[in-house]
Design goal:
Protein name: RNA-binding protein
Structural class: alpha+beta
Mean pLDDT: 93
Strand order of the largest sheet: 2-3-1-5-4
CATH class: Alpha Beta
CATH topology: 50s Ribosomal Protein L5, Chain: A
Distance between the termini: 11 Å
Number of strands: 5
Radius of gyration: 15 Å
CATH architecture: 2-Layer Sandwich
Pfam family, one: RNA_binding
Low-confidence stretches: none
Order of helices and strands: EHEEHHHEHEH
InterPro entries: PAB1135-like, Ribosomal_uL5_dom_sf
Shape: globular
Number of helices: 6
Number of domains: 1
Helix content: 25-40%
């Protein structure tokens, strides 16, 4: 994978009062390069419970490659590629949800808990071009896996 047609990748998850923050952080780190900085923001739920929002923005090409390599381990990466028309919006952003519990166990699987948003490079900045670029990089990732 020579070039990476993504400006950045945002990963975000919530740690609820019933969860262990270190474990939730570990799940998020499943997709991040080693020792990558995670931002924390504390919020309050509807019933006054504490919610910690953990997030990271990956911008360097090598770091984005790392995230994409982790995505290549998805069992249904082919299905994700088929859904790209629905997963890329008019602002050239690619969206995917990942299973927080599986990530904590060291596996990559689609599900609930971790939100991935990636800004796809597209010149001109049109949705169709972004879908084409995202498909191309996911095909490369799949081939390298």
């Amino acid at each position: 994978m020579a070039s990476v047609p993504f400006h950045y990748v945002d990963l975000r998850t919530f740690c609820y009062a019933t969860e262990d923050e270190k474990r939730v952080e570990g799940a998020l780190r499943r997709f991040l390069p080693e020792a990558f900085e995670i931002e924390r923001e504390t919020s309050e739920g509807y019933h006054g419970d504490r919610i910690v929002v953990l997030s990271a923005r990956v911008e360097k090409a090598d770091d984005v490659r790392h995230v994409l390599t982790e995505l290549s381990e998805l069992d249904d990466i082919d299905e994700v590629m088929e859904e790209l028309d629905d997963r890329v919006d008019d602002n050239c952003s690619f969206f995917l949800r990942l299973d927080k519990q599986a990530a904590f166990g060291g596996r990559s699987r689609r599900g609930q808990g971790i939100t991935l948003r990636a800004k796809v490079e597209a010149y001109p900045a049109k949705r169709e071009k972004a879908v084409e670029n995202a498909r191309s990089v996911l095909e490369d990732v799949r081939a390298d896996a």
